[in-house]
Every structure is written in C-alpha cells, then in structure tokens.
Design goal:
Elements (H helix, E strand, L loop, with lengths): L1 H27 E7 L3 E3 L3 E11 L3 E3 L6 E2 L2 E6 L3 E5 L2 E12 L3 E5 L3 E5 L5 E5 L3 E6 L26 H23 L13 H15 L7 H20 L8 H10 L7 H16 L6 H17 L13
Helix pairs in contact: 3-4, 3-7, 4-6, 4-7, 5-6, 6-7
C-alpha cells in the first residue's frame, strides 16, 4: 500500500511540473487575433490583425494561413512586421478578408508552434470569430428598368489623323534604318570574357534580392529561386549533380566533400529552411529570409576558385 501511494504521488508531482513548464512557456510566448468588424455586406472587406509576443530564447513558427476558409477569402496579406518592446519581440501581420456569400461564417483559430530552449514544443492558438455577411438590400417596390440600346456614333475622319501621321513617321523611320544598315561598316570584333560560375551566382543573388519576393508575400517562390541558385553553383563549382539530388542526398555529398564539409552546417540550415517554406507551407520569420541569402553569399565567397597564374619565363 505505501508503494502504490508513493507511485501515485510521484505521478502527481510530474504532472504538476509539466503543467508548470507549459504555463511558463505560454507566459513567454502569446498569440492574439482581432477583427475590426463582424458585420459586412457581400464584397466588403474587413481587417484581421494577428499578433505574437515572444520573450526569452523561444523559437516561434508562424501559423499557416489558407487562402480561403468557411466561405471567407483572404484578399491580401501584409508582411510580418517585427517590433522590439524592451525584452519582448512583437510580430504583427494584417490581412484583408471578404465574403461573397451571405450567412454567418467562422474565422477559425490559427495555430502557432513555439519551442523552448530545452526542445519542448507547444501549440498556441488564437481566438476564433463569427462574421455575418449580408446581401445588398433591394427595393422590390420599384419597377425594373430595361437595358438601353447601343447608340451608334457617326465616324469622323479627323479621328484617324494620328494613325495616318504615325504610319508616315514609322515608314520614314524604317527607310532611315534600312539605309543606315546598308551603309554600316563591319563592326569590330569584341572579345567577351566568359562569366565565371562565381560571378554568375553573385549576380543572380543580387537580382533575387532586388525582386523583393518575400517582402511581397511570395515566400515559396523566393526559396525556390534561392535554392536553384545555390544548387546551380554547387553543380558547376564542385561537379556534383546538385540539381538532381534531394536535400538529404545533397547534404550527404556536402558532408563527404573535403571543401564543402567545412560549410555543412550553413548549407543544412539554408536547405532545411527552404524545404519547410516550399513543402510544409511554413512561414519563416523575416530575419530567416535575409539570413538564408547571406549564408548562401558567404558560402560562394568562401569557396571562390583561386586562379593561379604561372610565369612562362619561369617554366
């Protein structure tokens, strides 16, 4: 009997500790959502504000937001803004919702995954809301109005003058260009130095940054282009079929490669974050987007081929 009582007491203690740890984690990470209206007319838009607060070294995975849910649609998604309030990091996102069917529809709760430094993961959920979508009122006492017939407009020759003058100008320009091409002397031969894999990769990374894909919400496309650039560089630089390999196969190749193994952790972080964004519909945080392209550029710089020039006289 004393042994059973001790076992039962130990179970209560463990349960209490787990609950206390979960409550402490929820205190350090919280998520909220609110609407600016709950009654709209068909086609009108309402704003949904999502906010997450994080204190300490917890990691936070943003909720997956579908394009449609319960007859409501997301019209636009604002970027995830990051604010710092003392030791608390605040993440905010604004979405525009609309509905094209009348009725009472539910905005569901969205789930966020948070992991504490010890590796324990907790799911936090926002509140759900009901939105009433109503039709446009119609006055049935008023008679229907018929559709007016198409009114013919008498053509005026003056309206064709811009086209006539434009055609004449184009014809003169074509004659001038043909004359110049006939009189043109052979152009001097220009030798173009082929672009190296290193130069091409840096150019593509710069072009990707200028597109501002993740800033405009195209996070999946951003990581598709980033990993294609990285895989293309590895394939050309190290003669490895990186474009044909899965992430695990490519990381195995990198781990066994003498030069790439030095950068295995950085490559693993880039490719893993990209897979989560592309296939798991996860939304990495803004700093992870910039960190991924920075790590890619650092890898390219660190593995830049060294060109050794030999002196013919010393040979």
């Amino acid at each position: 009997m004393p042994i059973k009582f001790a076992i039962k007491s130990l179970g209560w203690v463990l349960t209490l500790l787990i609950c206390q740890q979960s409550f402490a984690q929820q205190q350090e990470v919280s998520v909220h959502a609110k609407l600016d209206a709950v009654d709209i007319t068909i086609g009108d838009q309402i704003k949904l504000f999502i906010e997450a607060r994080k204190t300490g070294n917890h990691t936070l995975l943003w909720a997956t937001l579908p394009d449609t849910f319960n007859q409501l649609e997301i019209v636009s998604r604002g970027k995830i803004d990051t604010l710092q309030e003392g030791t608390t990091t605040v993440y905010k996102q604004k979405l525009l919702l609309t509905g094209f069917d009348s009725g009472l529809f539910k905005v569901p709760s969205f789930q966020f995954a948070t992991t504490n430094p010890s590796g324990s993961t907790t799911i936090l959920s926002t509140d759900s809301f009901l939105v009433n979508v109503t039709t446009v009122p119609v006055d049935t006492t008023q008679p229907f109005k018929g559709i007016k017939n198409i009114i013919a407009v008498k053509p005026d020759w003056k309206q064709y003058l811009p086209w006539i003058f434009g055609g004449i100008a184009l014809l003169v320009l074509l004659i001038f260009l043909v004359k110049k091409i006939i009189e043109k002397k052979p152009a001097p031969v220009i030798t173009i130095t082929p672009e190296t894999s290193y130069q091409k990769t840096l150019r593509l990374l710069e072009s990707l940054e200028q597109k501002k894909l993740w800033q405009s919400g195209n996070i999946k496309l951003y990581y598709i282009e980033l990993t294609d650039i990285l895989r293309g560089y590895i394939e050309e630089r190290f003669k490895t079929p990186a474009m044909e390999l899965t992430t695990d196969e490519l990381l195995t190749q990198c781990h066994n490669h003498k030069e790439m193994s030095k950068h295995y952790d950085e490559l693993s972080q880039i490719l893993t974050t990209a897979d989560l964004a592309k296939f798991a519909k996860a939304q990495p945080l803004p700093f992870e987007h910039t960190q991924s392209i920075t790590l890619t550029r650092n890898f390219v710089e660190a593995t830049k081929p060294v060109i050794v020039e030999t002196n013919p006289q010393s040979a």
